[in-house]
């Protein structure tokens, strides 16, 4: 019996959760360093990342120069930096594989003015020279992916048409476990025409749309015009 009691005692010790004092100074120091300001994109130009937002009010405010600078929270800055490190890793993969053709390749359309950068251009064994749009996503979103998210498909669609590629790929990495998915996107002239029409309409609007049609976090909700 004494032996059984000792075993039970040892098992119960393993399940004890020991708390530890928090190093609040270190956390606050890092957060202070990472706190900043997010400036809006340059006015008078449409950007693929802007146009992928379904909210016309937000796109109008950015294009016409009414979008305000907003605080850059430390956790958001960490997300941005995590994305940058992902891009650096993927660049090494493509370079070491001998596939890399270009990185952060600028593309531009003059009328309407649309300006962006293609994450990667690679030499694909089956499709030739194609653009790659790289995205990170959490486990919840990753598990639901059966095709590119609409906003990511739209971004790549703009690059396909602006740079005259027939097909490209959206490459996802799960930020929680580093699993990957990749989806082809074909050039769609009808979708491109709809994007251009939207740009012309926003250019011609004298006032910003009154209602936000974006997500709850859409930055246009913080602007009054």
Structure description:
With 225 residues, this protein is α+β, with helices and mostly antiparallel strands. It has one domain (36-205): Alpha-Beta Complex (Lambda Exonuclease, Chain A), CATH 3.90.320.10. 42% of the residues lie in helices and 24% in strands. The chain has helices spanning 2-14, 24-34, 48-51, 56-63, 74-97, 139-144, 150-162, 189-204; strands spanning 36-38, 70-72, 100-110, 113-124, 128-137, 167-174, 180-186. A five-stranded mixed sheet has the order 3-4-5-6-7, with helices on both faces. Strand 3 and strand 4 form a beta hairpin. Helix 2 crosses helix 5 and helix 7 (150-162) crosses helix 8 (189-204). The model has no long low-confidence stretch (mean pLDDT 91).
Ordered list of secondary-structure elements with their pairings:
Blueprint: H1 2-14, H2 24-34, E1 36-38, H3 48-51, H4 56-63, E2 70-72, H5 74-97, E3 100-110, E4 113-124, E5 128-137, H6 139-144, H7 150-162, E6 167-174, E7 180-186, H8 189-204
Parallel strand pairs: 5-6
Antiparallel strand pairs: 1-2, 3-4, 4-5, 6-7
